[in-house]
Every structure is written in C-alpha cells, then in structure tokens.
Amino acid sequence: MKFVTTSYNRAVALVSNSWMDQVTLIMVRVSLAGIFWRSGRTKVAEGSWLLVSDTAKFLFQEEYKAVPLPPEFAAYMATYAEHLFPILIILGLFTRLSALALLGMTMVIQIFVYPEAWWSVHIIWVSLALVLIVRGAGRFSIDTLLVKKT
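Structure (tokenized):
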C-alpha cells in the first residue's frame, strides 16, 4: 500500500508543478480564445478583416432577436468583441477583464439565444472563462510583465 501512496504522491507532484500550471493556463487561454475567434470570423464578410456580413446582421434580426439590444448594434458589438477579446487573451493582456467580457457574452447567448445549450457547450465556456478570471493569464503573459514593472 505504501508503494501506491508514494507513487500517487509523486505523480501528483509531477503534474502540480509550476510549469504544468503555466502550460495549463496557456491551454485554457488558447481554448477560450479559439472558440470566440472562430465564431467572430463567421460574422465577417468573406475576404474582409472586420466587415460585418449581411448574414450576421440577418441572424441578429431573426435568430438572435431575443437579445435585448438593437440587432445591428448587437451584430457589430458581437463581431468586434469576438475578435478583440480573444487577441487580448492570447497575448495575456487584460486577461481577467477579457475573460469577464466573454463570460458575459456567454451568459447572453445562454439566456437569450440558446438556453438549451448549457450542458452541451456553455458550461465549458463558462469554466474556461472562470479559470482565467480567477487565476489570470499566468507567467507567460503581458499582464505579468506589466505587474512586474509597477
């Protein structure tokens, strides 16, 4: 029994070290940013960088009409947010604020657009955002560089 306990404790120590913690935070950042970046890219006109497509505007007028914002404004805000905040999260700049913004977007989607998607999708997005809100971006981030300079 002692061998099992010792082996378990060594395995826990191995995966609990500082480097594994930092790699995990990077993976969380990439995962959350990737989800929203890909969604944002579906809202822009083909061949453009940030021109909101007519299709996106139509979706906000019809399928996402329960969102309590004017549809065209919501289309632009969602498109720009789904580009800006993932970039900031990847850079590790204003990570907690960016993750909070994406958490807010997730909750708007959950409440007003796809309330049936909690267990299949949104709980994962919320979990990723909460990790970044609670833990921050980690050692390999611009946030850490800025904190060290002050």
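Helices lie at 2-15, 18-41, 54-61, 71-91, 95-113, 118-135, 142-149. DSSP finds seven helices and no strands in the chain.
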